[in-house]
Design the sequence.
């Protein structure tokens, strides 16, 4: 469940110190923690959330910056604390959906340090959200050990995200019902036929 980070300010700071600071696992997120050194008292320029499970444990942090003039979102940062990966993953997808559906922002730009184990997951996530890789920056991030790293930048546009989600919902309905209307008649198809249809649709996109 997504909750405003300010409601968990003290717990969040202790969690980050205990789990993340000086932990080499989080070396790719080094600059992200610097941006979260102070929890904002306002939602004007940034949204800062924590992912919380049913027992009240903080599973991770999700935050991004907002340009109110262009209605663009940038600098999406997300880090899981391994408390509940399923809850955190669901909340991350919800946060991205809220950017476009709930808050109506125009575009989302964010980057990942090349070599970060999460990079391939972001590649798939952005593709599934109708986005793309928009560029690369050489030596644009500094890691915990002081070395520089390259950054891959993603872009997701509102209209493309909404179109992709509509198509995704249609596919889910098709698979769930295993039915399709042709010439005014309803046919019940096997899962094998449906899989072939979805593969065909994917290949011609």
Sequence:
């Amino acid at each position: 469940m997504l909750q405003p980070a300010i409601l968990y300010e003290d717990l969040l700071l202790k969690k980050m110190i205990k789990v993340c600071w000086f932990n080499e696992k989080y070396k790719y997120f080094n600059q992200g923690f610097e941006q979260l050194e102070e929890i904002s008292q306002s939602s004007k320029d940034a949204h800062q959330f924590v992912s919380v499970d049913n027992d009240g444990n903080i599973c991770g942090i999700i935050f991004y910056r907002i340009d109110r003039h262009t209605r663009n979102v940038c600098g999406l940062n997300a880090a899981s604390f391994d408390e509940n990966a399923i809850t955190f993953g669901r909340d991350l997808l919800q946060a991205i959906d809220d950017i476009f559906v709930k808050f109506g922002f125009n575009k989302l730009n964010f980057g990942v340090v090349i070599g970060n184990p999460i990079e391939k997951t972001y590649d798939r996530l952005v593709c599934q959200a109708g986005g793309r890789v928009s560029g690369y920056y050489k030596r644009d991030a500094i890691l915990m050990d002081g070395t520089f790293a390259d950054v891959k930048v993603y872009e997701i546009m509102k209209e493309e995200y909404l179109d992709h989600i509509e198509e995704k919902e249609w596919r889910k309905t098709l698979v769930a019902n295993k039915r399709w209307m042709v010439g005014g008649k309803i046919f019940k198809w096997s899962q094998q036929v449906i899989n072939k249809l979805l593969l065909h649709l994917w290949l011609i996109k």
In short: The beta strands are 2-4, 46-52, 58-67, 72-80, 107-113, 132-142, 148-157, 179-182, 185-188. The CA atoms of residues 136 and 152 lie 5 Å apart. The chain has six helices and nine strands. Helices lie at 9-20, 30-35, 85-100, 119-128, 158-177, 191-203.
